[in-house]
Amino acid sequence: MRSVEDQQIKVTAAAVAPRPVRVAISEAQGLLCAEDVVTEQPLPGFDQAAIDGYAVRSVDVAGAGANIRDEDGNAVDLTLPVVGEVAAGSRQPIRLQPRQTVRVDTGAPLPTLADAVLPLDFTDGGRARVKVYEPVRSGDYVRRIGDDVQPGDLAVRAGTIIGPAQVGLLAAVGRDKVLVHPRPRLSVLSVGGELVDIDRTPGPGQVYDVNSYALAAAARDAGADVNRVGIVSGDPKRLRDVVEGQLVRSEVVVIAGAVGGWASEQIREALEGLGELEITRVAMHPGSVQGFGLLGRDEVPTFLLPSNPVGALVVFEVMVRPLIRIALGRRHPMRRVVRARTILPIASIPGRRGYLRAQLNRSVCHRGTDR
Fold this sequence. Notes:
6 helices; 6-stranded mixed beta sheet; alpha/beta
């Protein structure tokens, strides 16, 4: 009997990642970036207002809030004329003269000579003239050209999983497409004379095809591009023709209901000549009897799984899922391991690793003790 670890090593050694492809950034989410995306232009591409307010020369408002008096000794407010307004997206250049201000929206290009933005809260919000209550320093409330990204910076590094932030950054630097490791294509089919699809009523001795649906869902969850073939006749010629067709279009093939007893021998004979399929016992339960081999001209990893839906899902989780994750380019294909305390004793078959259904409850720590 082979250990779980030895079988996993045998399976994952056959993982082959599909060739990288260039896709639209809207289709790249969740995939692994296959190139270093180097920015060619600075971001932002121009000095812009970081807040709604007034573009000013900081030297012109340096005295705001101080006790300013006129020649007669009377207290006066610092006011500046508002000589224009710049909206976000404006392409009309404006030059700011000394002791003037221009109303600006967030994201608007800064007028020439302006070096700061006066927030609305620092003023009375005037339209023709604005009363200034507080000063600003040079650079305040301004996003300078290249503050986020400089030419030559890496926007997205190869090996990065593309998430919402990466999609946004790719768009910000003007990339409409990106090279990614595509999802491996996986075909799943069920064999068994007792199976009927869910749109039919089972007759005597018949059961619904659970495996092709459950395994297709598990494959999508793992990140594969799935083709659910459904139920395939056990006729040797028909089965061989279907499997040969899937080997051409897939990086992984999963056949459920294909191990155990006389049925597995029929399947092995039907697929003879496509490659070597090994049916072995693995030290685990459920799903100890399982098959694996490399079939077709491209040596496509092909799995033979039990007919029992629970056993099939367990074998998929332990053997097939890691192979999919490796094909996606993930450095850590196995699920995270969590240590937990059981509330009841657990029995396991001696010499085998048991995979049991359980519910994980997060404990709350009180005074340094888990409860």
